[in-house]
Amino acid sequence: MITSPYHLQRCYALPRCRVCGSKAWVKIPWGNTWFCRTHFISYFEKKVYQTFSRYTPRIHKKLLFAVSGGKDSLAMLYSLAGKLAEEGYSLAVLFIDLGIKGYSEYARKAVEKAASDLGLSLIVVDLDKEHGFSIDELASRKSTFSFGKPICSLCGIVKRYLYNKVASDNGYDLVVTGHTLNDIYAFVMSNLTTGNLEDLVKLRPYVPGSASFVARARPLFFNYEYENRLYTLARGIDVVLQPCPHSPLQTGSLTTSFKKQLLELEKEHPGIGLMFMKNFLKKVIKSIEYSKPSQELVRCSICGMPSSSNPCSFCRIKLKLGKA
Fold first, then answer.
1. Concatenated DSSP letters for 287-307?
2. CA–CA gap between residue 111 and residue 70 (Å, rounded)
3. Could you report the per-residue pLDDT of 137-194, keeping only the tens digit for each?
4. Which of 31, 81, 147, 232 is deepest in the core (most CB within 10 A)?
5. How close are the terminal C-alpha atoms of the chain, in Å?
6. Which of 68, 72, 78 is nearest to 108 (CA)?
7. What does 128-158 look like in DSSP terms, one character per residue?
8. Strands (DSSP E) along 138-267, which ranges?
9. What is the dihedral of CA 130, 132, 138, 143, to 10 degrees?
10. 276/282 Cα distance (integer angstroms)
11. Helix (H) or strand (E) holding 61
């Protein structure tokens, strides 16, 4: 039986699954609900599918799942791919080999196994071979250049660029990512703190495409990281458990601090993160979107992809590394 990391309370009565009454396997504290292993899997898969179905319009045909090999993206893939394939969607998996020694090779194996298990085609982009640099190189040389961003932010720029480029080049009209409630909460709070209100409108379960930007879906928008890890345990899914070796560099970042803050809040107020995200989506985004001026896009003179600046952020990284 698994209990929540937020609540380690003593149970005097044997907890039972709310669905079948058998011995419980896990407690969901924000719903004060117990599930056996089987019915937790059903609960999780229904929740992810409902989020996708509610917010993603049925105009898309070819879906590209961006999968890193971690618990979140693999939970998303396993819980959703089968149902969407039954509904007639064309699906594929994208893995970006970031060239992080001691990490990327294990992540790649996990994603290869997942694609094989689910019978999906796999697209692999080797950052070093195809673009001339790795995240390891970027991290080692970062201090030499004035990027003005931490390594995890630079890695995020790289991944977002490649998600869009691969999808656009291969005719996929929707990129599906494994961003969780914890991620989005931290992004929202960080942007509020820095006054970057313009980017808040992008933090929602579905972002429509525009120009050459492919639409994005985040079916784990209302899922805690804790739920995703439980799902991979319940289904015996192989995931990469070791943290990225570059993540310790981010222990003092705003997003990391806000993720820790959310965990502390959940101890005393189970479900407060879920309440925050629902109100943010229902009330805050609409107000910002109404007052936000439209952003003019240009074409990057190096790669030709749409961007808010020229060159685009990805090509600026390559230029500073001497790889463009």
1. HHHHHPPPPP-EE-TTT--EE
2. 9
3. 998 887 667 677 888 889 999 999 999 999 999 999 999 999 999 999 999 999 999 8
4. 81
5. 53
6. 68
7. HHHHS--HHHHHHHGGGS---S-HHHHHHHH
8. 174-176, 206-207, 215-217
9. -160
10. 10
11. none
CB 219 within 8 A of CB 44: no
Closest CA to 207 of 253, 169, 254, 163: 163
128 residue type, one letter: D
Q: Which CATH architecture has domain 46-240+247-292?
A: 3-Layer(aba) Sandwich (3.40)
Q: Record the pTM.
A: 0.90
Query: What is the reported pLDDT for 196?
Result: 84
Query: Are 211 and 306 contacting, i.e. CB atoms less than 8 angstroms apart?
Result: yes
Q: Residue 97 pairs with which residues in a beta bridge?
A: 126
* Residue 255 binned pLDDT confidence (cut-offs 50, 70, 90): confident
Q: What are phi and psi of 26, to 5 degrees?
A: -150, 150
User: Could you count the other beta carbons within 10 Å of the beta carbon of residue 176?
Assistant: 29
Distances (CA, A) of 220 to 20, 71, 97, 243, 277: 26, 12, 23, 20, 12
| Residue 2 token pair | 């698994």
Q: Return the structure tokens found at 168.
A: 């656009």
**Pairing relationship of beta strands 26-28 and 62-66 according to DSSP bridges:** unpaired
Q: Residues 89, 119: contact at Cβ < 8 Å?
A: no
Task: Give me the amino acid identity at 160.
Answer: R
Q: What's the CA gap between 118 and 259, in Å, rounded?
A: 32
In terms of Cα–Cα distance, which of 223, 206, 171 is closest to 57? 206
Token pair belonging to 309: 């600046």
Among 160, 191, 156, 208, residue whose Cα is nearest residue 284: 191
Q: How would you classify the pairing of strands 174-176 and 206-207?
A: unpaired
Span(s) in the chain for CATH 3.40.50.620: 46-240+247-292
